[in-house]
Automatic annotation (TrEMBL), chain A:
<keyword id="KW-0812">Transmembrane</keyword>
<keyword id="KW-1133">Transmembrane helix</keyword>
<dbReference type="Pfam" id="PF00474">
    <property type="entry name" value="SSF"/>
</dbReference>
<dbReference type="InterPro" id="IPR050277">
    <property type="entry name" value="Sodium:Solute_Symporter"/>
</dbReference>
<feature type="transmembrane region" description="Helical">
    <location>
        <begin position="249"/>
        <end position="271"/>
    </location>
</feature>
<feature type="transmembrane region" description="Helical">
    <location>
        <begin position="523"/>
        <end position="548"/>
    </location>
</feature>
<feature type="transmembrane region" description="Helical">
    <location>
        <begin position="453"/>
        <end position="473"/>
    </location>
</feature>
<dbReference type="InterPro" id="IPR001734">
    <property type="entry name" value="Na/solute_symporter"/>
</dbReference>
<dbReference type="InterPro" id="IPR038377">
    <property type="entry name" value="Na/Glc_symporter_sf"/>
</dbReference>
UniProtKB/TrEMBL annotation, chain B:
<protein>
    <recommendedName>
        <fullName>Sodium symporter small subunit domain-containing protein</fullName>
    </recommendedName>
</protein>
<keyword id="KW-1133">Transmembrane helix</keyword>
<dbReference type="InterPro" id="IPR019886">
    <property type="entry name" value="Na_symporter_ssu"/>
</dbReference>
<dbReference type="Pfam" id="PF13937">
    <property type="entry name" value="DUF4212"/>
</dbReference>
<feature type="domain" description="Sodium symporter small subunit">
    <location>
        <begin position="5"/>
        <end position="81"/>
    </location>
</feature>
<keyword id="KW-0472">Membrane</keyword>
<feature type="transmembrane region" description="Helical">
    <location>
        <begin position="47"/>
        <end position="67"/>
    </location>
</feature>
<feature type="transmembrane region" description="Helical">
    <location>
        <begin position="12"/>
        <end position="35"/>
    </location>
</feature>
<keyword id="KW-0812">Transmembrane</keyword>
Length: 578, 83
């Protein structure tokens, strides 16, 4: 076994051992511990757990790669996936915590005094969470197959087994403490290579500052200026100004922001803290922990792009001989994620924006973070750490999503609607069984990824943005908002968004069924299906207020309930004496 | 009742102020005004680019803590703290 694989096994094995130990130590004994960790998590702990819950395989592996190739256009992900926390902290979390229930559908059901509303919310939650979880399961499989050279399926089974142990045993309590550990693992694994690379390129150890510094080669040229020059010389768009179009960027950023604020597995985490004050605080801490990664990501992206261009063409016109390509190049060629084709037969690599002459025929965006340490010649233990970090990111998000799904089914559907007189003990058993089934189902989807896996981000954020977020906002900020109006709004927002995504990407993403075609000229105002959730949200608000005007306000007892959760004063219906 | 009402009004005012700042740093400086701001520089960063990829995120963090602090004061002032 070579040194890198040995280190990787140690890093992955060690962190998994730690997760198991925590799961055993923090096992859950009651439904309130299972769903909401007994309401006894401190804001700092909760912030860290939210960070791990939130930062998925997509944040850890894909985002910096997207930024590397989109440049300024990648800002939509940076602002979109952080700005939502401001909305959560100001507009949603404190009031939902005061109301004091376990799940998002339960809040919606109470506020809109309707089982139908609760069921609509459960359906949105399950679709959004399942589409999201497929990506995590794929991430686990890929990380194992690339770094430990075990087959993809075996990697997936190992991942499923680990999640199974700590999620079913510990519920929210076990997941929270494991996520804290996973946060530490993932942030270390993300920043250490970034610090090394920033030091190499600019001499500044802080990546956020390194990105704005001059190169360490003594030329006195700023890194970003040099990068702009290199990429535009080869015909690519200038790095710091390459926009996706302003309407599209606006709509996309907004969709991601309100989608973030509406994703149930994130909101649910705010039910674990003991008070309203703590709910506000934990949103702040969460964003600090998230920002630690999100402000480093632009540096990782830009520096990875810089190193990649530099390896292939160290100086203008001096292209790398294919025969002399470095080891990482060969490793990634084997996976098929990097491909070279010698079009002009000169044995050298030309990488340009022109399809006719470009010889780097495939550079998968997802490899940038994983390949980054080897491109920069970092020591093997750093590469091993990145593998453990990627797995921590995927597993922690998967666990949070599984908990959201199982609580929606066992608590909202079974206990709330079908069998209201189920005992606590049975409910706890039911939620463990549902969680087991969800893990098996998610594993199955990871093994047989449906054709629509690539379009799922659009669907998850679109659903949350167009249905759940507006319903919660109106429930809190409009006292008169009635059940009929809210349900009509949710269905309209959800329906339009789904229709738009499907008409451009195919019904359930089946190729050939897109009745308007995926072509850009057909986009409404030039807005891509990924960015349409914000339009869906506007439709949701508009329909709800029209129906409210036509059908009259919510009853007085509901308006009083709203008054009650708007103020921290009075008895908090604590999640633990439910 | 009067107290609850004015508590909620002041809370709404705070939220409104925060959301304006939230909008200005991200959608304003980072997106709509990015081109004029890129004429200015912050070290190696073009200013608009910096807001889009760094500055907006720092502001978001600051906003949440400022709001939390203000709300704690407001809770005290109106005597609606949790028991």
């Amino acid at each position: 076994m070579d040194e890198l694989r040995l280190y990787t096994w140690i890093a992955v094995g060690g962190t998994f051992g730690l997760y198991f130990f925590i799961a055993w130590w923090a096992r859950a004994g009651s439904t309130s511990e299972f769903y909401a960790a007994g309401g006894g998590i401190t804001p700092l702990q909760n912030g860290m757990a939210i960070g791990a819950d939130w930062m998925s395989a997509a944040s850890f592996i894909s985002m910096a790669g997207l930024i590397a190739f989109l440049g300024y256009g990648g800002s939509v992900f940076l602002m979109g996936w952080t700005g939502g926390y401001v909305l959560l902290a100001l507009c949603l979390a404190p009031y939902m915590r005061k109301h004091g229930k376990f799940t998002v559908p339960e809040f919606i059901g109470d506020r809109f005094y309707s089982k139908t509303a609760r069921i609509v919310a459960v359906v949105c939650l399950i679709i959004a969470s399942i589409t999201y979880i497929i990506g995590q399961m794929k991430g686990v499989g890929v990380a194992f197959s690339r770094f430990l050279e075990v087959p993809y399926d075996t990697g997936l089974y190992i991942g499923m087994a680990v999640v199974f142990v700590y999620a079913t045993l510990g519920g929210m309590k076990g997941i929270t403490y494991t996520q804290i550990a996973q946060y530490v693992v993932l942030i270390t694994a993300y920043t250490i290579p970034a610090i090394f690379i920033s030091l190499q390129l600019t001499g500044n150890p802080i990546p956020q500052l390194g990105l704005g510094s001059t190169l360490a080669d003594g030329s006195g040229v700023y890194l970003l200026d040099k990068l702009d020059m290199v990429v535009s010389d080869l015909g690519f768009k200038e790095y710091t100004t390459s926009s996706l179009g302003s309407v599209e960027m606006f709509a996309y950023t907004m969709s991601l922001m309100i989608g973030t604020a509406g994703l149930p597995h994130v909101i649910m985490r705010f039910f674990t803290v003991p008070s309203v004050k703590a709910a506000r605080q934990s949103a702040g801490y969460a964003l600090v922990f998230i920002a630690l990664l999100y402000t480093v990501a632009p540096a990782v992206g830009a520096m990875a792009r810089f190193n990649l261009m530099n390896t292939i063409e160290p100086a203008a016109g001096q292209n790398l001989d294919y025969a002399e390509r470095p080891q990482w190049f060969k490793d990634w060629e084997r996976t098929g994620l990097l491909a070279f084709e010698d079009k002009n037969g000169d044995g050298k690599i030309q990488y340009t924006a022109d399809n006719e002459t470009n010889e780097m025929v495939k550079v998968d965006r997802d490899i940038m973070v994983l390949a980054n340490p080897s491109i920069a010649n970092l020591p093997n233990w750093v590469i091993a750490l990145v593998a453990a970090g990627g797995l921590a990111a995927a597993l922690s998000t998967a666990a949070g999503l599984l908990l959201a799904i199982s609580s929606a089914i066992s608590h909202d559907l079974m206990k709330g609607v079908l069998m209201p007189d189920m005992s606590e003990k049975n409910e706890l058993a039911a939620s463990r069984i549902v969680m087991t089934i969800s893990i098996l189902f998610a594993g199955y989807l990871g093994l047989n990824p449906p054709g629509f896996a690539a379009g799922t981000v659009a669907l998850a954020f679109g659903l949350a943005a167009s249905s759940i977020f507006p319903a919660l906002m109106m429930g809190i900020f409009s006292k008169k908002m009635s059940s009929k109006a809210a349900i009509a709004g949710m269905c309209a927002g959800l329906g339009c968004t789904m229709l738009y995504v499907f008409q451009h990407k195919g019904i359930m993403f089946i190729p050939g069924t897109s009745f308007l075609g995926g072509m850009e000229p057909n986009w409404f105002l030039g807005i891509s299906p990924n960015a349409f959730g914000s339009v869906g949200a506007v439709i949701n608000f508009a329909v709800a207020f029209l129906v409210l005007k036509a059908t009259g306000p919510a009853p007085v007892n509901i308006q009083n309930m709203v008054d009650n959760f708007r103020s921290p004063h009075g008895k908090i219906a604590a999640a633990h004496d439910h | 009742m009067e107290n609850t009402k004015s508590y909620w009004q002041e809370n709404l005012r705070l939220i409104f102020i925060c959301l304006i700042i939230w909008f200005v740093v991200s959608f304003g400086f980072g997106l709509l005004l990015v081109e004029p701001l890129n004429e200015f520089r912050l070290g190696g960063y073009k200013l608009g680019f910096w807001f889009a990829q760094q500055g907006s995120i720092y502001t978001f963090v600051g906003l949440i803590f400022w709001y939390t602090k203000k709300m704690n004061e407001l809770d005290k002032k109106h005597n609606v703290e949790e028991s």
